[in-house]
């Protein structure tokens, strides 16, 4: 694999995350649901990819399997060159902590901690020291400098999600998984978060994979991967809200 060097000099193999023939089945016997029916897909380092598809098409399942949050029933997942399928719980927890950032729809911040403590908690639990310059970069880019001492309840939804973005990026993960990151935000706050995710890719060399229902949110990505019925159903490079909408209509979403 050839190396990709970002503007910040971050070097990675081309596929930050790759799934091969991924199968996930929920339940057993007559009630079994084949949520992923053999999905092979690679996510290039230094790119922003959106996963889209009709309700029930397997988006969340794919993200959970890619991030090692759920076991798979067949196939494999590699993150940054490490096969995560087959790792024991301890190694998987460590890999998630060290190499993956998460942004969830519901922010998931600890209410008793300040914004700064929330951002740094993961590193602290891992016994790692923050890189001060990197911390300052993301705090300033996210416009959180004057909010660092505030508790989540003292922040707007958009500010809370920006704290969650900073928390996801502070350890410079191999990949950030964002699950409907704008689902609880008004359109202006959502646009700010999406702008930041895109900027973290373009300027800071990060890799972001986002599940979304929203064609406008998907249009911030470099590429959209489409799922239908647990299978890959196509992809769109340099998507626009219109091209995504028409692809989804084609899939019957
Ligand atoms: N824990 C579970 N137990 C049983 N079936 C499940 C479970 N989680 C998901 N499924 C089923 O697997 C299929 C894929 O679900 P998944 O949540 O991945 O789809 P999705 O594309 O993310 O849907 P949505 O857009 O509605 O969030 C669906 O048929 C769903 O009902």
Question: Could you please describe the fold and organization of this structure?
Answer:
InterPro entries: AAA+_ATPase, ABC_transporter-like_ATP-bd, ABC_transpr_LolD-like, MacB-like_ATP-bd, P-loop_NTPase. This is ABC transporter ATP-binding protein. GO terms for molecular function: ATP binding; ATP hydrolysis activity; transmembrane transporter activity. Keywords: ATP-binding, Nucleotide-binding, Transport. The chain is 33% helix and 28% strand. It has 253 residues and is α/β, with parallel strands linked by helices. The protein has a single domain, classed as P-loop containing nucleotide triphosphate hydrolases (Rossmann fold, 3-Layer(aba) Sandwich). Strands 8-9-10-5-11-12 form a 6-stranded mixed sheet, sandwiched between helices. A 4-stranded antiparallel sheet has the order 4-3-6-7, covered by helices on one side. Bound molecules: adenosine-5'-triphosphate.
What descriptors fit this protein?
single chain, 253 residues, alpha/beta, Rossmann fold, 6-stranded mixed beta sheet, 8 helices, 33% helix, binds adenosine-5'-triphosphate
């Amino acid at each position: 694999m050839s190396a990709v060097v970002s503007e910040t000099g971050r070097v990675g193999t081309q596929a930050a995350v790759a799934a091969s023939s991924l199968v996930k089945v929920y339940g057993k016997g007559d009630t079994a649901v084949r949520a992923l029916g053999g999905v092979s897909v690679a996510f290039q380092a230094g790119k922003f990819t959106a996963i889209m598809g009709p309700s029930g098409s397997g988006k969340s399942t794919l993200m959970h399997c890619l991030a090692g949050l759920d076991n798979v029933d067949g196939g494999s997942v590699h993150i940054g060159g490490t096969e995560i399928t087959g790792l024991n719980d301890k190694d998987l927890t460590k890999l998630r902590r060290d190499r993956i950032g998460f942004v969830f729809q519901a922010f998931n911040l600890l209410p008793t901690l300040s914004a700064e403590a929330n951002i740094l908690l993961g590193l602290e639990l891992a016994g790692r020291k923050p890189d001060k310059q990197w911390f300052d970069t993301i705090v300033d880019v996210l416009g959180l400098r004057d909010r660092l001492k505030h508790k989540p309840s003292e922040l707007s939804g958009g500010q809370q999600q920006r704290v969650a973005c900073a928390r996801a990026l502070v350890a410079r993960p191999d990949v950030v998984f964002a699950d409907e990151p704008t689902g609880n935000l008004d359109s202006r706050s959502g646009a700010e978060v999406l702008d930041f995710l895109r900027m973290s890719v373009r300027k800071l060399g990060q890799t972001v994979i986002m599940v979304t229902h929203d064609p406008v949110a998907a249009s911030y990505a470099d590429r959209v991967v489409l799922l239908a019925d647990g299978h890959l159903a196509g992809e769109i490079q340099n998507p626009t809200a219109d091209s995504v909408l028409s692809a989804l209509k084609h899939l019957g979403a």
